[in-house]
Structures are given as C-alpha cells and as structure tokens.
Amino acid sequence: MIDRALPTRTLLDLAARQWFDELADRGIVVTDNDLIVCAWNSWLVEQTGILADNAIGHPLFVVCPTIAARGLDEHYQRALAGEVRVLAHRFHKFLIPVSKSALPTGATEATQTARIVPLTSDGQVVGTVTIVEDVSERVVSERELRNQILVSERARNVAEDASKLKDEFLATMSHEIRTPLNAVLGWTQILRTQGNIKSRDRALEVIERNAASQLRLVEDLLDMARIVSGKLRLDIETIELQTVVQAALDVIEPGATAKRVAIVADFEATPIPINADADRLQQAVWNVLSNALKFTNSGGTITVSVRRDNATARLIVADTGQGITAEFLPYVFDRFRQADASTSRRHGGLGLGLALTRQILELHGGSIEVKSAGTDKGSTFACRLPVADTLAQAAATIKPHLDADALDGIVVLIVDDSADSREMLEVALRAYRASVTTVDSVDNALAQLASGSIVPDVVVSDIGMPGRDGYELIRRLRSFAEPIRSTPAIAVTAYADPEDRMHALAAGYQLHLAKPADPSVVAESILSLNAARSSSAKRHRS
Amino acid sequence: MELTALQQDALIELLNIGFGRAGASLSQLTGHRVLLEVPKVTIHPIEEVAQALEGVIASDVASVHQIFSGPVAGDALLMLDQNGAAILKELLTSEPALPLAIDASAREVITEVGNILLNACLGTFGNILHVQVAFSVPQLSLESVGGILESLRVHREGVRYALVVHAGFKLRDTEVRGYLVIILSVASLDRLLREVEAWERDNR
After folding, report:
1. Quick one: closest CA in B to A113, which residue?
2. Among A33, A84, A122, which would you mutate to test the B interface (most chain B Cβ atoms within 10 Å of its Cβ)?
3. Smallest Cβ distance to B115: which of A85, A135, A149?
4. pTM here?
5. B10, B7, B34: which is closest to B20 by C-alpha?
6. Closest CA to A107 of A122, A130, A128, A89
7. Cβ neighbours of residue A482 under 8 Å, at least 6 residues apart?
8. Residue numbers of A between 88 and 107 with CB closer than 8 Å to B
9. How far apart are CA A457 and CA B69, in angstroms?
10. Rounded mean pLDDT of A100-120?
C-alpha cells in the first residue's frame, strides 16, 4: 500500500471535480433523471452568462428554453432511456445558446457539437451528462480548406479547358495549313510532268491562290501572337472609315458574287474621320465580312452600313446566314473557338479571325458586339470606333511605276542561305535589268567584297543565316574602306516584328522588308537607295 | 454456423422495426426522406467476417463503433466504404466533400448517423429482451475492415460470432450501401437467438 494522506478514490473525486469546473475547455451539464440541473461548469458560466447558482436546481429546459423549442429535448428523452446521443454541428448547429459577447466577431449563433450521455448507477439511468464543445475555429478552417479546394479545382478546369481548346486548335491548324500545301505540291507535280500550256496557267493560278491563303493563315497566327504578347504596333493616321470599309468590300466582293450572296452597302455620305492603322482596320473589317460570307448560303444578303453617332462611328454587318446558337454566342470572339470544331465541319478557318478583329478594334479604342436570334436567323456584328477630331489631308501614296529597265546598270549583291529566295529575287531584279550577284553565306559575301571581285551599289541580305548572320554582315561591311563601307543595304527577312526592324536598322541597314517581299517593292527600294547615294556622292564631289 | 429460417425471419423482422425507427429519425434530422431497405442477415465466426466483407467493401472503410454492455454484450459497428460515407455526408448536408480524414465536421455527421442506426437496432433488441443495454460513446475510425476486426479481437477473449446486417439506405434517389456488424460472445449470441425465437413464436 502506498502511504498517502488521502485515499485514491478521494483524490480521483477531487481531480474530477477540479477538471469539471476549471480545467475542461468545454461545457459540462449534469442533470438528474428529472432533467433538473445538478452541475453547471465555469465554461458554461463564461459562455452563457448564466451563473451556476441560477442554473443549479432548475429544470434544464427552463435554464435553456431553446433546447425544447428547437426539438432537441428528444435527445434527452433518449438519453434517459439509456442511449448515447451525439449531435453533429452540421445537423444541429448548437445545443446551448451562448451570450453575444462570447460569440466570435461576425457570428450570430454558437457553433457546437455535443454529446448527451446517460449517467448510470447499477444498470439504472440516474441522470444525464451533456458535453458541449465549441468548434467554430475548426468549422472556419474547414470552410477555408473547402474553398481552397474549390478554387484550385476551378483553376484546373479552366486550364484543362484551355489546353483542350489549344489541342483542337492545333489539329485545325495542321489541317488548314496542309490543305493549301496539298494543292501546291499536287500542281507542282503536274507542272513537272506535263508541258501543256493550258494546265500550266491553271496550275500557277491554283498555286498562287493557295500560297496566298496560307500566307494569310500564317499572318493571322503571327498577328495573334503579337497581340497576345503586346507587340503589335499600330501605324495610326487619320483616315475615312468609309474608305477602309470599301477597300475590304472590294476584296470580298468577287467571293460574294461567286457564291451568289448579295452585298448591300449603305454608307453615310459625309466622311467619318477616324484615327486608325488603315491596313489593320481593313483586316479587321475583312474578317467580319468574310465571316458573314462564310456562313451565308447562296441567295442570302449581307448588309454593310456605316454610320456616325456623335463621337462614335458604327459599322454594322448583318447577314441572313446560319446564325449563332445562344450557347456559342458568348464565345464568338474567343481565340481558337469555333462553334463546330469537329473534323466533319463544313467551314474552314482557324477560328482566329473574329478574335483578331476584336483585339484590333480594342487596340483602336473601339469594340465589337454580336447578336443573333439563333440558328438560321442570321447574325449582326456591330463595331464601334471613336471618331477623330478632324480629317487630315490623306496623303495618297501612289505606287511609282517602275520601268522595265529601272535598275539598268545597278549592281546588286544578294546574300541569302535559301536558294529559293536567292533565285526568286535574282530573277525578279534581273527583269529590271539589274546586274545581280548572289552568295549563300555571309562568309562568301565578305570574301567577294574583300577580294574586290564585286563592288555592289546595293546589298540585299537575309538576316537569319547559319554561321554569321545578316547583322554581322552589315557590321563588317560598315568597317570596310570606301566605297564598300557606305553601300546602302536592305534587310529582307522573316523576322518581321517592329523590334526586328529596329534591330536591323540599328545594325546598319537602311531598309527592312518583311518576307515574303514583293519583288517590285525590293526593286523600288533598290532604286531609291541608289538614287539617294548617287546624289549624296555628287554633293560630296561638288 | 447458420441461422435457422425461424431465426432469420425473426431477426429481419426486428431489424426492420429498428430500421423504421432509424429511417424516421434520419428523415427528421436531414429534412429528406430516408428509406432503409429490408436488411439481409448472415452470421459468421469473427475470423471470417473480414473475408465476408472485403469482397464487398473496398479498402478502407469509415466505421462507427459502439460497445454495448449488459446481459447481452458486444461490439456494434456501422461500416461504410469511404465513397459511401462521402455520398452520405453530401446528401445529408449538401456540402462538397473533403476527404474524411481532414473533415472533422463530416466525421461527426457520419458518427451521428451511425449512432442513430446502431441505437435503433440494438435498442430494439434490448426492448424484446427486456434488458437495459448500455452504450459507449460512438467512435469513428478510418481503416481497413481487417484492421478494425483485428483490434476488436485482441481485446476480447473466447469464441465470438458476428451478425452481419447488409443495409441499404436510399435518400434523394441515391443508394448508399453499408454493413451493420454486431459482434457477440457465444453466450450473448445464444441468449439473443433464444429470446428472438421466443419473441417470434409469441408474435405468431
């Protein structure tokens, strides 16, 4: 036996009493089998504001009338019949109401779980014990966790959606890019095997048309990439909206005639000045028109109206075509989105056109909206652009006509690693009687220049080449002795972003032309650079 | 050991009474009509219960465990596979599911539902046996059927049997399957079956 001042039993009783009253971090109520409160611990006093003296000796449902009022008294009847009851917070919210001052900020009621247990002696129920626990902190953290999971799930869904769209887009793009290539390759084959003139013209026409359509696709893609990366720069000038829309109509009209779709143009007579990049805006308008044409059947009508509404210019394109379902309407201007992305779809295209249009209009401070009453009810696209203050005198840029011998006597050095590009330029420039030398690398160009075997009047060079590139060529050329050092140079390159242009000019080129460059533009540029150099040379001499 | 046809009938009838009571309680609790299907009862030595259940309950289960004591004593468990537990919890409280292991509020919900079912069934047995059955506070655990039964076996001695009640709830047109497992010593089982047979004869 351990020698103690008090027996174990008494110590345990004391411990239980002390735990019950001071140590327990939860509410404890003890009742007899008539549900008269016998014990009410200090946690409850703190939380409810009801003193132990005011609780003990009174019926529980008088001390806490809401227990009976909320139908929770049944659990006490069950406990008196010997059952243990557990009360989940999710089902019952709370058992014993607490005072306002004990509630966490913002809460209007207690957040509790409870257990009601029969108190038994010799197999007989003699009362009940209720244990109430505040779970508000736990409930808050569970809610936060649940929200976090919801948020991350939503983010995952969005990402999955986007990735699915891109997959569809890639499939569409491959298809769209391959289709014109098939035609080009097929007709090239025919040209190679059959010499007859009639099919030659037809072949060239098909090849040209398909190459042009592929160029358009690639340009759309590049534009989109530029817009997305914020690299698209607008060449803003004050122009007439009507002129731009008419230019786009001119492009679309042959297609409409061929498809027997009528185009009704309804323009306001007074010119509407807008500040815009004419080419980009025409591209945007063309996209809307070609979309309308694509989805309008033979016999339909496309109405194009241009109106001014105070400071707002409006372009409305309404068609009688297949319309847009209410489900797809919100996605019309989304990138890569097409109402029918299936392989059996009737209409080609990348699903980029309208997305580009919206982006271009927004870059111009404008907007575009679409309405459709549904399938087969036609669609109406409404574009808005801010009107410019005044219409500046539009300087008409008239393409100078080049004579067939415009480049006669001018020595041109072409540097390009691509044999096709070299040859194309060579043939085109020779047609203007230029004296052309081609080399396939910067090293060869530098060797020829150093040996003095060629003294070009103008250098035309690619930028991206294996080994030394076009930037290095121009830097080295500029460190040669005169007259090589001051030779005007044109960069003709697929690096067509404004940054690339700046880079090329900074490196020492006089001009930067994007590939594929129109040979007549190259010829013109050569002519004007050469003329400028000759006149400055004359000034030097005089 | 197999139940006689008489014992089967009597047990099912008693369980039906209990389930009816539990269904009413659950309907009232959740505000949705909760239907409990007519149960199927089998009996197994405790060593074979895991085998009998593992075919139907995959991997870990959520089990609500209550010890009951008195003239008939033993362990009562409600077992739900975790999917069933999640469905049950969502149907009952319309809150999206978190994994039970980190959702104490959901564990409470399952515990309360288990408590109601177990009390209803054992309470019915207690009533016909005219004995007071005392229950422990229900405990919820998440582990395999084998693990649960193993921990029950180590703490008790003697040959023990398990009454396995195949239960199905239907709420909001969704079915949730669960198992009520009542583990009894040979003496308790014997007493229970004798009383059940007597009750069945009296009621014919």
Report:
1. B108
2. A84
3. A85
4. 0.56
5. B34
6. A89
7. none
8. 88-91
9. 110
10. 89
